[in-house]
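User: structure tokens for this one?
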Amino acid sequence: MMSDLAAVLAEHRAAPFPSAVRRGEDYGSVCAVTIDADICGWASRAGSLPPGARVPLARAADRLRSSLPEFPAAGRPYYERLLVIADLALAE
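Assistant:
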């Protein structure tokens, strides 16, 4: 599972930020840039996350999941991949 997470994280890091999404703008209950940084940061430590860090990661994923319809359609695949990353990290 860790290799799946590493592969998806690498793919995400190599992808350009979606041009349809405005940097720093809130979509639903999340900031487009902050949610990306938060989830990637926590996920990069998967397997060694302190117990208290799992809760904010899960909350961030929940906020993103509920906010996804507010993102421009062209930018959603980027954030859908971010949800995959969060789910894989939480499964570790």
